[in-house]
Design brief:
By secondary structure, this protein is α/β, with parallel strands linked by helices. The chain is about 40% helix and about 20% strand. α9 (about 210-220) runs parallel beside α10, α9 crosses α14 and α12 (about 300-305) packs across α15.
Amino acid sequence: MISVANGQASRTVLHRTDTFVGRTTNWLYDHLRCIPRHEPVVLCDELANRDEFPLLRARGGNAERLSHRVWRRAMGSRPFPTDAQWLRRARPALLHSHFGHVAVGDFPLQKFLGVPWVVSFYGADVYEVSRSPEWQAPYERLFADARRVLALGPYMAQALAALGCAPEKVAVHPLGVDVDLIPHRERELTQGTPLRILFAGTFREKKGIEFVIRGAAQARKAGVPLHVTLVGDAAAKPGDTQTKENVFREIAALGMTNAVTHHPYVEFHTLMDIALASHVFVAPSVTSASGDAEGTPFVLQQMMATGMPVIATAHSDIPYIFGDQRRQLVRERDADAIAERLAYYADDPSRLVVDGAAMAKQIRERFDVRTCAARLSNMYDDLAA
């Protein structure tokens, strides 16, 4: 559908994802609401946290209702009649599928709509899938049918090309941070105050949480007063519960029980309150045994935007996010390097302010959500034309 607002043509873009808005995927909400000239409407499998993220028009698929299950058995993946009616009213000019595993279920939807198709990849849907032969044929078809395939950074773009996507179809499109809504504060470490360390994310092997604990334990043993706050929990993915158990077993084994606080998933404003009270964010991402890897951890970008120094690894497209600050990245699985960086900030607290300012500047100048969303809108214009 094309409408006119403020003298400019506005096209509707249908966005497909699994959960909207997922607790760990609120970056999608931020990105969509900032796209100029194109009205986003969302068709998802499950609506979640809508009271916290209410602005965008979204429809849940109600996939578990009996009527939908009967329809799927009889008609496969063709849109359910009421969904088809809703889609006809929306009349989207483009389809944008988020995550490769979602997109491979969207072939009938794209055929029904008959519009240009954009597919975004985010991490496991590239790196872990590449080890699974059963995904080869669906991805080949996906790469053939999609008009544009989006990667979070150059490392992921190369990985998509290696999976068989034509390089001319791949475009780098990073996630943007709403820097206007992120609170900012210089971090000050006063004498007698422990260094407050923060990790936030899913308890998943690729997050490398045990290296936060090991690095902090080594720094503490070397005389650094500190406290670690973990925000997050295991999700439904196989291995998450085992990772969580391993993390807390590590905490006990290293004598860190009284130096660690754990919060399950929290609302965004609560996470920001915890972040502003912390001195250092640690994101020691690793490549898991299954091949799973990060895209660009969005919470890392948010923490940089608050003016907090971040200790992260030279993993996937994290160097792309860090830009000129990439020299500060440490190797994967290197607890010694994390301990050294923690001691560095404890010994010279002025570096908290200097490094935090440099990281906030990187996000503000390179990854502002409105700049990123404007580039996506330009891409939509080119495809719709």
